[in-house]
Amino acid sequence: MASMAAVLNKTPFLSQQPLTKSPNLDLPIAAVSFPSKPRRRRGVVRSGLIAPDGGKLVELIVDEPRRREKKHEATELPRVELTAIDMQWMHVLSEGWASPLGGFMRESEFLQTLHFNSLRLDDGSVVNMSVPIVLAIDDEQKAGIGESKRVALVDSEGNPVAILTDIEIYKHPKEERIARTWGTTAPGLPYVEEAITNAGNWLIGGDLEVLEPVKYNDGLDRFRLSPADLRKELEKRGADAVFAFQLRNPVHNGHALLMTDTRRRLLEMGYKNPILLLHPLGGYTKADDVPLSWRMKQHEKVLEDGVLDPETTVVSIFPSPMHYAGPTEVQWHAKARINAGANFYIVGRDPAGMGHPVEKRDLYDADHGKKVLSMAPGLERLNILPFKVAAYDKTQGKMAFFDPSRPQDFLFISGTKMRTLAKNKENPPDGFMCPGGWQVLVDYYDSLTPAGNGRLPEVIPA
């Protein structure tokens, strides 16, 4: 990792959404979509860093001189303990990824998000907001709050981490929330089972004051840049266009082809210094996704091996949990990147999608995500970059654009095949993934080898 230090000095290595089919299905993972041309909004392509939603970043971290006072206040308030996913959402809110949202949603914000995928501001303008950012409590917690208008939010060890003020408690309509967010109430939705099914029957919203910046102490905090941090870095680099790429899988050379050619096209459009924001998702992901620490190590190797140019790439962790809610969720992914300064967003087949939890098919139409983004309320300022397909070209020994006139020359490596190769310590075709990045995958799956008793070990951080 020492050789990476020089790269990291130039390239903030920040936080995933693959341009692939569901890892639960034996469908192409080596195929990626490639931008044909940007989908322009209202005939205008904006340059430079666009303004955050609502006009300014809403940062909710208490100023350092007031932190001791606020921590003391928190000790005297009713308490609500946060789950790991609640903490991730608090992190998202605290740094302004959900600007102009000022805290966990009250009922009016929740209903607008659920039914309109947007919020109407006091001035009449509309910003996109497609996934509810809410905090659930149970009957006992509700009773403990009583008539108080403020509560302390505490971590799993009971330490105060935030104060929620001017609170509103309202019913948690779980079935309606699930149906509207995922378009189904079928059993087996990962986020639902993790964060909703067993959650309390009430939601509590209010204005959020986070007592200090969120840290995970997992060796990756230096890669977690806030929207404000990102904007400073992008301005420092003189970016006149920022194109964001979300992923939750390792980067293969098809992804790299997509990203490097996108930059070429932006240069052809007249931009002088387009910067790539490679932005892997760092919050909750389902059990069969590669863990964040291993993905970040793999992304490091991609930069070390020169697959992506560190001078024109900023890599950072996006702290949001993953819903796997397809066209609904991809709006959130795009909206959050506006707040970080991106004015272009790359979107491919089945963004934020997954296999149906019950039936053997995709949960969402593969093209609906990019179509929805092109029409979504509140995203008019964002230029959407749709794709065409790239795959492994056997005649060239590398990832290339798919040519329908010679389909026999192209290889689509499924997610199942890629995992099987890595688990068996076999190599994919030369040119599919950089050697250093592939070795990280081999090492990860090797760490999952069953022990002598046949039980799988706990996932080992990279």
Distance between the termini: 11 Å
Structural class: alpha/beta
Integer tally of domains? 2
Number of beta strands: 17
Biggest pleated sheet? 6 strands, parallel
Q: Work out the helicity level.
A: 25-40%
Could you tell me the CATH topology label of the largest domain.
Rossmann fold
Number of helices: 14
**What is the mean pLDDT?**
89
Instruction: Strand order, main sheet: write it out.
Output: 1-12-11-10-13-14
Shape: globular
CATH class of the largest domain: Alpha Beta
CATH homology-level superfamily of the largest domain: HUPs
Binned strand content: 15-25%
Report Rg: 22 Å
Architecture of the largest domain, CATH level 2? 3-Layer(aba) Sandwich
* Uncertain runs: 1-37, 39-46
Describe the structure.
Strand 11, helix 10 and strand 12 form a beta-alpha-beta unit. 48% of the residues are buried. The protein has two domains: 64-210, Roll (Sulfate adenylyltransferase), CATH 3.10.400.10; 221-448, HUPs (Rossmann fold, 3-Layer(aba) Sandwich), CATH 3.40.50. The strands form four sheets. A six-stranded parallel β-sheet has the order 1-12-11-10-13-14, sandwiched between helices. The chain has a five-stranded mixed β-sheet with strand order 3-7-8-9-6. Strands 2, 15, 16 and 17 form a four-stranded antiparallel β-sheet that branches. The chain is 31% helix and 17% strand. The model is unreliable at 1-37 and 39-46 (pLDDT under 50). The chain is globular, with a radius of gyration of 22 Å. The chain has 462 residues and is of the alpha/beta class. Helix 10 packs antiparallel against helix 14 (435-447). The longest helix is centred in the middle third of the chain and has 16 residues, at 253-268.
